[in-house]
Request: fold
Amino acid sequence: MTAKFLNANCVCQTFDPDILKAKLESDELLKGLYGQIIESRPNLFSATTVFISPDQLEAITSIISAIEEVTRSSNYRNLVLSLSPSISHVEWGTKGVFMGYDFHLSDDGPKLIEVNTNAGGALLNLELAKAQQECCQEANVFFKHRDELLNMDKLFYEMFLREWELQRGNAKIGLIAIVDDDPEAQYLYPEFQLFQRLFARFGTKAIIADPKDLHFRDGHLWHDKEKVAMVYNRLTDFYLEDDVHASIRSAHQKNSIVLTPTPHHHAIYVNKLNLVTLSSESTLSELSIPGKTNETLLAGIPKTEEVSTQHADDLWDRRRGLFFKPLLGYGSKAAYRGEKLTRKVWEEILKGHYVAQALIPPSKRKIQKDGEQTDLKVDIRAYVYNGKIQLLAARLYSGQTTNFRTNGGGFAPVFVIPDA
Reply:
């Protein structure tokens, strides 16, 4: 029994909604949260599980470790920072919470599609993983709750505490603001509420805040009459360029808050031009990156190139084998599979800032929904802190890019199953 076989044939529905409801609503203040999720976000959680093999996990870990090694190179850091706004040079020693490494599982091994800061869904996926029930006899052993899964909420809190200590030493942590634009309108707003509860469980007050309600004055960031000590940054304005984010930008630049993740983390890890660097054998050689690390990166990251008008005809001719992504894009917005491109969209791509990545089709997971079986596409996300994988999760979807609109799709837990 292998992971590949189970993904292709096992249609067991392992998700127990009653367990998840109890876990999400264990706090009196969160009563009704599960109902709100199901009503307004019916495709947030898939009912099934995704399996990977130990070899696939080892390959994912090796690719992440190789990137971590490269980011410690002064040659690499100088290069990527030169391609990013000046605020990315502001660095206070933090590591950046919830880095997200997204993979497709090809027949040739896992391939890194992109990296994200402030990757959403970690806490939701943790609760989802805990809410799985045993299914078929062959897979039952992999649904036993491991100690690390049960204790991971503590690990998540300690990650924020570590960020605080890296910048503030032994000072007592203060008010945490979970910040996003119009937070209640965000698709993952329920996760903000869960983080607020998580921080409270460990004795730390947290608020969910819109940046327009934050003000920088007298050397401090304020929310009403309270000083904000730390900002858990869920903004997609990665370099804090919008005027409404000026107070956070000033507080960060003046070391008045602990911001995580920061523009620096985005520049070092996430700028999609980094994929161009990390998938170029000649550039890696010029940066004096060790050969073993080069091999891992070149094998694990699809060839990526910057889109330019000088190479427009060549890229258009090769478009069916490429996937086009905006440099500062997120959540698959304005991303296009080359074979779907029209000339009108192509002209818009040429006017914007895009990269073209070699197309790696996602693997498939068979599910059963409403009495019918179907195959959905799979992305694997590794939530990482300081180079270490904390949690694996999958997103199941149909269509061109990941989404939460697919019936039977959504987040799904990932279990490692040895080949037998």
Remarks:
- Residues 54-71 form the longest helix (18 residues).
- The chain has two domains: 3-274+362-416, 303-359.
- The domain at 303-359 is CATH 3.30.1490 (Dna Ligase; domain 1).
